[in-house]
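call fold(seq) -> tokens
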Amino acid sequence: MKYLTTTNVFLALIFASSNSFAQEIEFGTATVTEDYCVSLDTESPISEHYSIDISHLHLMTALEAVNKFGFISNNLLTYSVDYEAETAYLHVHLDRTPTHQDIIWWNDYVESLCGL
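ret:
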């Protein structure tokens, strides 16, 4: 019985500590064309995370979605896809440029990758 109580306390501490590290991620808005050309919302400051509605792309499978967005990922931009929610997520690695860049620079960079 003592073992069961100790285990329960231990598990409670683990869950409590993991919840204290959880953070709410604020997503900026971005769009994507049928040619997978992404544009960031330039009306807001640069964000590290963006959500992108992909419902208009009519992707047939989760694998197709992951492959399409994996093709446009690179060392500065990482895409992930929630196929069921028809949403792609963009992680902009702000810390990987030599100096801080603004939303205009990042949007120009993202758009420069169109058609590659």
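The beta strands are 28-32, 38-40, 49-53, 77-82, 87-92.
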